[in-house]
Design a protein that fits this description.
heterodimer, A: D-Maltodextrin-Binding Protein, domain 2, 2 domains, four-stranded mixed sheet, two-stranded antiparallel sheet, about 5% strand, B: alpha/beta, Rossmann fold, six-stranded mixed sheet, 9 helices, AAA+_ATPase (chain B), nucleotide-binding (chain B), P-loop_NTPase (chain B), transferase (chain B)
């Protein structure tokens, strides 16, 4: 025990003597979380506040194009900029000056109206309801109309998809409305008479989890703080593995190997200190979420009544990260091996864990891999507490996995070291 | 005290033995010098005796103990001064010594007093609270030595303890080692300084290609070798004048 305390104190001294290192350990994760949350929050806000400029070439100049323009304006996502010539709009978008251009084809309104009228008349004719029945009148043939969308090649796939969906939804609505109108005209001559109820019959409502009768409304902060806190906690494997490799290169490990002290004790000292570092990082991030975020216009991080569970998850996530750092430091021979590998591996674990892309939209194979990522266990545990209002019992499986991961990686490190240095 | 039988070591990926079928007996209270050209196998032999590397074949006992059966007892019995400084550069001399002393189970005032006494003897008292990265090579060598003797080892292995130090530091180190030897510590050391070894060692062994060519008290070796006036003459006569550069 005394040797463990001495090792812990030594690690404390080593860490505190490297002021630059400490600053990086504590400040960089805070910078990361603030930056990411501001960016993510602006993405959420773009729906209501920030508007994306959109170029619109109106070759139709009819009721359909009017409805599209009105719909785009009312969506509160886009700011419509009218352009006369399609080629100009295309050049602006393909050169990256604008992200998107919509080209509404010529005669869209009139052709749509004619085609729908023709269809409606055809239907009514079959039922023998058409008053202006004209026998054997040849049907006009209409070619399908295309609303062209130009995207900046650098535009992200998800943005493209959401725009396409939005335009598609508008066009479907216009078509439906036009059909109703055509029937209305055929059935009654009084335009004020309401023949059809055109309001949507089916709507949706999101039911949120509740905490003491209060809805838990997720926001960018509730999503980002756990994810990026975990990311920062796992980054501890970089300085920790460097610490171990340094001991090997400066010869102190050689001395320790001749001393009557076990490798477990040496690693134990490192574990205690680096776990404290992880927990300080975690608390600082929570404090940023609670006090700094509202001051800079971001939603406040709500941790009321959850702190003890969150702290527990942070302890086990920290242990899992430390286990990985101990293993990497034991196996790596140089800092050139441990630092880039550690940093890249954390990014891979984060990707697998669902920090960037939700696990449920990953390919099946990656979803399976995700299940063995400690970052996924940690993230789920954090989300359970933050967003799903879970109890201690419900996070036991995740924290058990994190603890087992720590035990297994540390054991592998010890066995590897013993085997390598066995006499 | 130390009995080595048919000890051999061949590193992975090499064809030659760094230590080959080596037999050696070192008596208690000896100051035993392991001398030899670069790559002769001196550091490998010390590393084997300190359990830092595994022998390919053969065995040895130290005070009747082996690493296989009495690992911790043996570690408590020996001290090693490695060729590299093996200290934490950002910790002070005192912090380094407190840490390494506590790894031998030493604690409290007893440890502090030991450190103070050793620092005093080796002329480093006033630098006790200075960080190691501010020390000169000679000062680091002396701290490196103190870190290895705080637990009063019965056997002390030193790998080139005076390399790269000035004459003053060298004298302080050698005198301190003599003092330790007088108090009962067996000293086994490697060196390239043959004059130093001649004056300091009670016995030496000249090693080349992993084998012992000759061994005995320095004076006997000099008198046994034709036209030899000192240990360097004996060394050159037995190991030749060819350069021993290797990579």
């Amino acid at each position: 025990m005394r040797k463990l305390l001495a090792s812990t104190y030594k690690e404390f001294l080593l860490l505190t003597r490297d002021i630059g290192g400490i600053a990086i350990l504590f400040i960089m994760p805070l910078v990361l979380i603030v930056t990411i949350t501001i960016i993510q929050d602006s993405t959420f806000k773009s729906v209501s506040e920030t508007k994306i400029p959109i170029l619109l070439v109106d070759n139709d100049k009819g009721s359909v194009s009017e409805t599209i323009i009105k719909g785009l304006k009312e969506s509160n996502i886009f700011e419509v900029i009218k352009i006369a010539i399609e080629e100009d709009a295309k050049n602006l978008v393909f050169k990256g000056k604008n992200q998107l251009a919509i080209v509404i084809p010529e005669n869209l309104s009139s052709d749509l109206e004619k085609k729908i009228n023709q269809n409606v008349e055809g239907i009514l004719d079959r039922f023998g309801l058409d008053e202006d029945e004209v026998e054997n009148q040849p049907k006009e043939i209409f070619t399908a109309k295309e609303v062209k969308l130009y995207f900046d090649p650098a535009t992200q796939f998800s943005f493209k998809n959401s725009v396409k969906n939005e335009v598609d939804k508008m066009i479907s609505k216009i078509e439906t409305q036009s059909i109703y109108n055509a029937f209305q005209k055929q059935i009654t001559d009084d335009p004020s008479e309401i023949v059809f109820e055109t309001e949507n019959f089916i709507s949706f409502k999101e039911i949120l989890p509740k905490n003491k009768d209060e809805n838990i409304i997720p926001n960018s902060v509730q999503h980002n703080v756990p994810a990026w806190t975990l990311f920062a906690i796992f980054f501890i494997i970089v300085p920790l593995s460097i610490n171990i490799v340094k001991e090997k290169s400066q010869g102190t490990f050689v001395r320790l190997r001749t001393n009557p002290v076990s490798y477990l004790t040496v690693l134990g000292g490192k574990t205690v200190i680096y776990l404290i570092v992880c927990l300080i990082q975690f608390v600082l991030m929570l404090l940023i979420g609670i006090y700094l975020f509202p001051a800079i216009g971001l939603p406040t991080l709500n941790v009321s009544g959850k702190f003890s569970l969150l702290f527990l998850v942070a302890i086990f996530a920290g242990l899992a990260a430390i286990g990985l750092g101990l293993l990497l430091g034991t196996i790596a021979k140089t800092q050139e091996q441990s630092a880039p590998f550690g940093a890249t591996f954390v990014v891979i674990l984060a990707a697998l864990g669902g920090v960037w892309v939700p696990v449920f939209i990953m390919p099946e194979f990656m979803q399976t891999l995700s299940k063995i990522s400690p970052m996924n266990w940690g993230l789920n545990a954090f989300y359970d507490v933050f967003l799903r209002n879970s109890s201690l019992l419900e996070i036991v499986p995740e924290i058990t996995l994190l603890f087992l991961f720590f035990i297994i990686t540390t054991l592998i490190a010890i066995v590897y070291n013993e085997k390598k240095n066995a006499v | 005290m130390i009995e080595i039988k048919q000890l051999s070591k061949k590193y992975k990926g090499t064809d030659i033995f760094s230590v080959s079928d080596l037999d050696l007996c070192i008596s208690e209270k000896d100051i035993f010098g392991l001398l030899g050209p670069n790559g002769a196998g001196k550091t490998t032999l010390i590393s084997l005796l300190c359990s830092l590397i595994k022998p390919t074949s053969g065995s040895f006992v130290i005070n009747g103990l082996t690493y296989k059966k009495n690992k911790n007892q043996l570690k408590q019995l020996i001290g090693i001064v490695p060729q590299e400084y093996a200290l934490y550069p950002t910790l002070t001399a005192f912090e380094n010594l407190m840490y390494f002393g506590s790894m031998y189970g030493l604690k409290g005032n007893k440890l502090k007093l030991k450190i103070k006494a050793a620092l005093q003897t080796l002329g480093l008292s006033q630098f006790s609270n200075k960080k190691i990265n501010t020390f000169s090579g000679g000062m680091k060598r002396r701290i490196n030595l103190i870190a290895s003797i705080l637990h009063n080892p019965k056997v002390l292995f030193l790998d080139e303890p005076t390399v790269g130090v000035d004459v003053q530091s060298k004298n302080v180190i050698i005198n301190y080692l003599k003092e330790l030897n007088e108090k009962g510590t067996t000293i086994i050391y490697t060196s390239h300084h043959l004059n130093e070894a001649e004056a300091f060692c009670t016995k030496v062994a000249i090693i080349d290609h992993g084998r012992i060519i000759t061994q005995g008290p320095p004076k006997s070796l000099i008198s046994d070798q034709k036209n030899a006036n000192n240990l360097e003459d004996v060394f050159l006569a037995l190991t030749g004048h060819a350069l021993r550069d290797h990579a």
